[in-house]
Amino acid sequence: MDDDGLRSALPVRTTAELDGLRIGLVHDGGAAVGRHERLRELFAGCDVVAYGHSHMPEVSRVEGVWILNPGSPTERRRAPGHTMIVIRDGEPELVPIRA
Fold it and tell me: Residue 15 gets which letter from DSSP?
C-alpha cells in the first residue's frame, strides 16, 4: 500500500531489540507451507519473528521462537476479525479490536 519512494527507503526485513527480546520483522512470511522453518532460519537468534501481509492472525511457539502475525486492526480481509498483538513480559497476546 506504500508508495514506491517509501518502499525503497525501508528494508525488506530487519531486527530490533526491545525489553530483552530480539525481534525479527518482515512484511511477507511467504507460503504457508514451510513458513515457520523458513522464518526461524531467516531470523536465526531471534526470540520473536513477526510477519504480516496475509492479515491472518497467528500466535505460534515453534522450537522456542514465537512466530507472530498480528492480523490487522483496520482491514481484516479473510481474517475472522480485526486484531493486533501485544507482548507483555515476553508473552504475546492476540487482542481483538472493535472496528
Answer: E
- CATH code for the domain of 10: 3.60.21.10
Task: For residue 36, give the 3-state DSSP assignment.
Answer: helix
pLDDT computed for residue 78 by the predictor: 85
The pTM for the full model equals 0.89
Q: Which is nearest to 58 in space by CA: 90, 49, 10?
A: 49
Residue bearing cell 518482515: 26
Structural contact between residues 35 and 29, judged by C-beta atoms closer than 8 angstroms? yes
Give the DSSP letter of residue 5: H
Per the listing, cell 531467516 goes with: 42
Instruction: Quickly tell me which residue has 525488506 as its cell.
Output: 12
Contact yes or no for 66/40 (Cβ under 8 A): no
Q: What is the extent of the structural domain holding 48?
A: 4-97
Strand runs (DSSP E) across the chain, as ranges? 13-18, 21-28, 48-52, 58-62, 65-69, 82-88, 91-97
For the chain, give the number of residues. Answer: 99
